[in-house]
Structure formats: structure tokens, C-alpha cells
Amino acid sequence: MEIENAVVDPQTGMAAPYADRNGVRDLLRVVQAETGGEPLHDGEHLTGVRTGDGTEITLEHGGALEYASPPVADLATAVTGLRQAVDHLAEVARGLGLAVLPGANLPFNRLADVPWVPKPRGALMRGFFDDLGDAGSLGQVVMALTLSTQATLDYTSADDLAEKVRVHVAASPVVAALFVNSPLEGGELTGLQSRRCQGWLRTDPRRCGLLPVGLRDRMTAEDFVEWALGLPMIYHRTADGAYRAAGGSAFGELLERGFPDGSMPTWDDWTSHLSQVWTEVRVRRTLELRAADGPAYPHVQAVPALWVGLTYHRPSRLAAWELLRHHTAAELRQAIRDVPARGLSAAAGGVPVRELGRELLRLARA
Known about the structure:
By secondary structure, the protein is of the alpha+beta class. 42% of the residues lie in helices and 16% in strands. It is built from 13 helices and 17 strands. It has helices at residues 24-35, 75-95, 120-131, 139-145, 158-178, 195-201, 221-229, 251-257, 267-274, 302-311, 314-324, 329-342, 353-365; strands at residues 2-8, 38-42, 45-50, 56-59, 65-68, 99-101, 149-153, 184-185, 188-189, 208-209, 235-237, 243-245, 278-279, 281-283, 287-289, 347-348, 351-352. Strand 11 and strand 12 form a beta hairpin. The chain is globular and about 55 Å long.
């Protein structure tokens, strides 16, 4: 499980700066001291802590804290660990005069107010999105202001991967609608039910949104690799640890010609490239499910519970695919485009998303 939490001034709701006294850097220092964890750095800057059990607490670009659990065997253990860790973060924050705020975005900040964390790759990403024009116009908003609650599940074979991915991708617009929870920005109503979902729709549609090859009846690993090879790489890390722009070339082209500095891609570059893909279902060694806005903290377990129920009970997984398979890729893309404004009132091919959501919830409980 992963949950992103804003760290804010409890009086104003504004994000806490990184380097100020009692800011998020100091919060990480206290967490590291109290847990005995390993400090994680970007260059000289403290940006995370890894504890002995594999838990990671890391900073997002706008100062949000991401909790990432270690792999566990069951949902109850994952939720218990998450609550213990986030409750500890909240206690540490309170001691510094701060508050931890889960949810789907920072509701009172605007982009101009963002206290950017000094992560070297952040400037490269912001420049990349800016160069895309309208297609990347909300990339910085997503980097700085959005929060989420994510489930990460596994697969055991090529057939298992194909079965799970097709259901996850087809269900993503419905799950996004079930969890809309970001109507505010800059302390004002935006007229949307999910500003976060809107942001991802305008953060390079080539690498965000619904995974195109995932909507095939049986996606193979080769299908995914071929698709990912065609995406431009944003940045790469040099031998001395510095981050450099990758030159805007597709990864497949980089394999043939190399980076602008003359070096050739390595396996680490490939795994880094896959981390620069933010589709609603992120395929790596695991399946990262990213469609949902983060809910209020008392209900945070609802996100992984829904996905676990639809994934690990095979009869439910097959029934969910039977429910969704008749919707075309175009219908599902239109549905997720409608979700930010309409939420559960959106439709997929004329079928109300509310009805699809009701049936998915029933299947997940089975």
C-alpha cells in the first residue's frame, strides 16, 4: 500500500516548506531518529527514511509525505502497518506544530505557493511537461498538489498478468469515479469533483491515463515492453549520480543511439524509464493501481480492499471482466475524461458508471 499525505500548517492549511525550522526536513529527521531507519538522500538533501522492515517514508516534489509499505501477505496486515506508521507521522508532525493531511490534493495551495523539495530530477520533469504545451499543462500541478492512496498487487505468470491487467485497466474509470475527493484548489471550489483526476489527464497523455495495451483481451509482456520502448524517456542518471535530460527520444531509440552525453542505456535506465510512466495501472515487477483519489483517513482501507477483492478472488475477477469487456477503449477513455466533472454520473458507452461501480463493489465483497 501507498498513501500520500500533505504536511501542512494546521492554522492555514498551507503546505509546510522543506528547509524551514520545523519543516518537513526536520520531520524526516525526527522520524529517522525515532525509528532508527536509514536516511535516504537526493544528492545532499534528506528526502526519505527506510525502516528495518522495508517501510519507506519519502518526500514528493511538493513536500507531501508518501508512506510505502513493505510486501505483506494479507490486507489486514497492510492496513495495520499503514495506520501505525501514519499515526506516528501525525504525532511527530504535531510536535513540530504541523498536521498530516491525507486525501487527494492539497486543498489550500496554488501552484505559485508550492515549496518545491530540492530533488534534482524535479526541475527536469517540470521542464519536460512545460515543453509539451497544453498536453502537459497540469504536470506541475500533479507533481506538487495531488495526493493518492494506491494498492500494489502481484502477479505470478504471463497469463495471470494478462487477466489482472485487463480487469484493472477496464475498471479504472469506475474506481476513479467511486473515490472522487478533490473539489478544492487554492481554498476555492473548482467546479470539479476530482481536480486530481483532471490533472493526470493533462500530464502527457502518452504516459498517463489508461494503459493502451492493457485493454487487449490478452496483453503479453512483449506487448507492454514494445509500448514502453516507444515512450520518450524524461531523465536518466549518469555514472556520477547526476540527473540529466534524456533528450526527448523514445527509449527504443536510445538503445540504438545512446544518450546525448554519449553513454548507452543500462538495465537501471530501463527500470528508471518505467518509473516515469504513470498510467492508472503501472506495470513493473508488481501492478500499481493508481486510479483512486485518496479518501478520508478513516476510509483509507477501502481502496486496497476493493482492488484485492476484484483481483485475488478469480471468480470475481472473471465476472468483473465479463461486466466490462463489452466497453470499447474509446468508451472507457471518454468515461475517465468525464469523471473529474461528473463523478459517478459519468457513463461508459451509455451505461452509468454508478451502476458499474455498484456491481464491482458486489463482486469485490464476494
